[in-house]
Known about the structure:
This protein is an alpha+beta fold. The chain has helices at residues 40-55, 77-80, 150-175, 182-204, 206-211, 250-276, 283-290, 292-307, 333-343, 350-362, 397-419, 437-451, 464-476, 523-540, and strands at residues 8-15, 18-25, 29-34, 61-63, 89-96, 99-106, 113-123, 128-133, 138-144, 214-221, 311-314, 325-326, 368-374, 378-385, 388-391, 425-429, 456-460, 490-496, 500-503.
Amino acid sequence: MKTSKQTKGIGFKNFRRFEDFPMLKFGDITYLVGRNNSGKSTMVKAQLLMMDYLQNQLFDTFSFDSAVLEDANIVTFGRAKNNKSKSNQIEFTSAINNIEFSVIISGKDDTTKANVHSFNVIDENEGIILEIDYLKEIIHLKRKKKRVDSDKVQLVYQLARLTSDLRDIEDQISKLQSKVSKEYLTLKDKRNSLVNQIEKIDKAIPEQKKEEGFDFNVSYPLQFLRVGQMYEVEEGDENEDDIVLSEDTMIQEFISIILYFNEIQYKKDSEESKSNNDDTFNPDSIEVHQNKVKLEKWADRVSNLINSQTFHYLPANPSKQSALFALRDKNNDLAQAIHHFKQAGLDDKAESKSFVKHWMKEFEVGEDFSIKFYAGEAYEFHIVEDGAQNHLSDKGMGSLQIMSLILKLATILFSKKQKNRNVPTVLIEEPELNLHPELQSKLCDFLLEVSNKNVLFLVETHSEYIIRRAQLIAIEEGFIMNEELNPNPFKVFYFHKKEGPYEMKLNSQGKFDRDFGKGFYNESGRLTLGMIKELRKNQAE
């Protein structure tokens, strides 16, 4: 059964060709369409960079040269920065469910690492805002007050309706010529009645206005804690300024800092309150103290959310035709796909093998397969077709390309199942390479089946057939008729070179609400019209 996936998204400023890239929220399968050099890969690279920062606990350093970022090919801050911007800062914002993580960085053009100016976490569900200012060396923690209760929400809605009705009646009154007519008097009575109702409701709402703001809003110096230092070091201790990182994750460490200094403040207030025989407590300090356990659990939950994310980048690397696939050949995409599949033991698992065989047939590669390992150095991959066994390398480039994708997704899918991981995100670059148009269309069905097993896809494509197939599936399955009960798993973003990226949504007739840029859907029609014109010209001559 298909379970609900996480919602993810990315936005950034002054990165590569974009001065301001809006936050784009992904679907289950998100297609990125646009002309060459329109910024599709930039969005993918931004996601990889941001997740590397979050998961590797880099604190005040943002890296462009991590091993997992080799395919992103950014390398230095200078190559990352928008060359038209006057600002020397880059900002990234990544969303996972209703939590946003943002970081502002700057650096020198020839350096592979940048300095982090600030790091913020905003949890909309909990109303928690965590702000780390590395320049001022201050850490802030806020929690917004809960929204109005249902009764007060109704009052607000009622006030809006009555105010709208009042405007309508006043508009009718202003158009009447006679001020003594029956219609005028009737409208005036209604107006007075509405004014009285609005005044009563308006008096009931100010209570909520007093509740707006924050449950607490505290700021403390950004001093990292030693393991076991929490609640043990007295204020003024000679070791208090030691900056030694604990074993906590980044988010847990920040909350530990807040709680550590808040306990010092709370203890100080408590002692002053006893000696002065009065209430000298800071209400924010009390609130944080009372929510200590909840904040620690929140930090654990957010840290687990970050660490559970898995991103797989599958670049468009043409496979090599070779009888033997050397496991040490890091530049051979297919060799690595075979290696990881075999090492995971998936060629001996019925479910994973059945998955591979099914999609081999669908993409006309063969009916069965076998993998042999020689001397711990290389693999031989055989395809069974029409009762005969042949080397995979004897197949065409399209078959090699699609087999690489099938094996990679099988490894991701079934390794995920064994390790009980969270929802992985797979970023694929041009999966349609070397495929016949009909098989390009079938890619959409392939990705949908894998997505239904709880995998998110972010796909760069130039294939009209993939997009048209997604359109047809959305109509066939009724995805566009009731988004709430049967949401459309497909999202399409078009990257316009001048206007920037925008979402292409399907209307109730299954048509996109906006046009693709020049040269995508209209290219085949343009060529057809050109041929018709030339034929007519030739006939006239």
